[in-house]
Amino acid sequence: MAIEKNSVISMFYELKDAKTGEVLESNLYAQPISFILGKGQIIEGLEEEIMKLDCPGEADIVIKKEKAMGDYDESAIQTLPKEQFAGIDLKVGMELFGEGEDGSSVRVIVKDIKDNDVVIDYNHAYAGKDLLFSLSLLDSRPATEDEILTGIVAGSHSCGCGGHGHHDHDHHHGGGGCCGGNGGCGCH
Length: 188
What we know:
The protein is mainly beta and about 190 residues long. The protein has 2 helices and 9 strands, in the order E-E-E-H-E-E-E-E-E-E-H.
């Protein structure tokens, strides 16, 4: 059965770096995820490809970096005084969540820790990567009016708002999003 916008999709997935084969995300040994297609809860390029598939079904899909997280931007690296991170057990590679100047949710990665400064990277963890998604689509159904309104799938593990506060951190990729979605509300 073809999949339409505002369908609730349930699936297993594994996300790899298409070039290196490194596994970036996977829910193969956990609960299937559910999300509403067309709500920006997963990356747009993947949404477009899923709409071409049949459900149930399986597919391997490569999303080029241009349709994923874009190129790596060297100018998106900042050095900040370490005192701004008081109370956080900093580790290289960890993700921090905070508020941008415009009040939006921001996710950064700790790139380096110096004596008095911390180097942070505003690039998405998957910037500059072509992404390979191995999908196993289990179920597709029309979303209810409530689900379309709230973006939250009833009674399931959904890709959606993670509710991270200032400087909350989460070692697991995604932080509330999934399938490459940003932390916060999995939107782009």
